[in-house]
Amino acid sequence: MGVVSLDVLRQMSLMATVLVMTATKVVAWCENKPYDMAGKETVTQIHFYFHDIVGAKNATGVRVAEAPSTNQSATSFGALVIVDDALTEGPELTSKLVGRAQGLYGYVSLEEPVLLMALSYYFIDENFNGSTLTTLTRNPFPDTYREFPIIGGTGLFRYARGVVEAKSHSFNATNGDGIVEYNVTVIHYCSPEMLKNNWGAHATT
Ligand SMILES: *[C@@H]1O[C@H](CO)[C@@H](O)[C@H](O)[C@H]1NC(C)=O
Ligand SMILES: *[C@@H]1O[C@H](CO)[C@@H](O)[C@H](O)[C@H]1NC(C)=O
Ligand SMILES: *[C@@H]1O[C@H](CO)[C@@H](O)[C@H](O)[C@H]1NC(C)=O
Ligand SMILES: *[C@@H]1O[C@H](CO)[C@@H](O)[C@H](O)[C@H]1NC(C)=O
Ligand SMILES: *[C@@H]1O[C@H](CO)[C@@H](O)[C@H](O)[C@H]1NC(C)=O
């Protein structure tokens, strides 16, 4: 997973960052509030692939409900799906697992193929282990590019806001399986400097 952090006040010094921490340390390190942290915003960019496997026996997305009219709808209007989808470093499902997208999506448009997705992205890789980001978003999934708002986060991503740029990597029209490339840009308040200056003694780097 590619990670780039930059202090908004010193945007000229773009630096590659590798953060190593446990969930417990993140909580201790991030007890800062945005109103105490003027000018200390950090921008982090994260890249991964989202695997929505709905067609296989070992599916990670299952349809749990639908309306009586859903079968007659060209847009599956009224269907609801619960997912625990893998997030991987590369486009192959066998590449390094960096987290899971857990939540649900429903088919919400009468006219077009559109989802409403309520998902928590739970990271388990060494960079963001235990931290989460949340999106609540409209997703017109046949479009090549989509944008999802990040409406919050936990751990390293407390008080997060940001945007996901999403692009379909592949879609199997026969079984509905899809792989989506994610570029996440997230603004938060737990910077590498804070780790070094305030909690460096606890870092495991
Ligand atoms: C499902 O199992 C098959 C066979 O073991 C494997 O090739 C495939 O990657 C698995 N898919 C998921 C989503 O775990
Ligand atoms: C819709 O179609 C599926 C697959 O044919 C079927 O399993 C399901 O019972 C149908 N649902 C309704 C509400 O008719
Ligand atoms: C993530 O944290 C858990 C405990 O909170 C730990 O068991 C696991 O080894 C950590 N994973 C990585 C990749 O650091
Ligand atoms: C993500 O960013 C990379 C590098 O800028 C770019 O090549 C790729 O097309 C982007 N993907 C998405 C989904 O925005
Ligand atoms: C698409 O899904 C069908 C049905 O599960 C499967 O037979 C086929 O191999 C899949 N195509 C690709 C490119 O994975």
From TrEMBL:
It is found in: Secreted, Extracellular space, Apoplast. The keyword Cytoplasm does not apply. InterPro entries: Allene_oxi_cyc_Dirigent (IPR044859), Dirigent (IPR004265). Residues 1-28 form the signal peptide. Keywords: Apoplast, Secreted, Signal. Pfam families: Dirigent. One of its GO terms (biological process) is phenylpropanoid biosynthetic process. Belongs to the plant dirigent protein family. PANTHER family: NUCLEOPORIN-RELATED. Homodimer. This is Dirigent protein.
